[in-house]
Amino acid sequence: MAPSVWLGASLARALFYPTLLYTVLRGKLGGPAHREWYHRIDRTVLLGALPLRSLTRKLVQDENVRGVITMNEEYETRFLCNSSKQ
Question: Which InterPro entries match (predicted)?
Fold first, then answer.
């Protein structure tokens, strides 16, 4: 792997948790700073951020979610999301 690619991947990993924390906090704030975690596109599709474990029950029960397609890196989901076995 080229040094610039390796540096970019390392930087992405280092910045992931601070930016995730920022995004979570913006979701909890009211007013113009508030950001929704997901949006309903149509009857069967939700589009949103990382499906955190704390949202799983709500997504399954309230939104009828039966599956998740993610484009995240494995390190982004390892500790924060349910696995397919869960």
Answer: Prot-tyrosine_phosphatase-like, PTPMT1
What residues pair up with 46 in beta bridges, in sequence order? 40
Q: Which residues pair with 38 in a beta bridge?
A: 48
d(CA 45, CA 86): 21
* pLDDT average per 10 residues of sequence, the chain (86 residues): 71 90 88 88 93 91 92 88 77
CA angle, corner 79, sides to 17 and 71, nearest 5? 75
Q: Which two tokens stand for residue 75?
A: 């390190």
d(CA 51, CA 24): 12
**Residue 2: what pLDDT?**
66
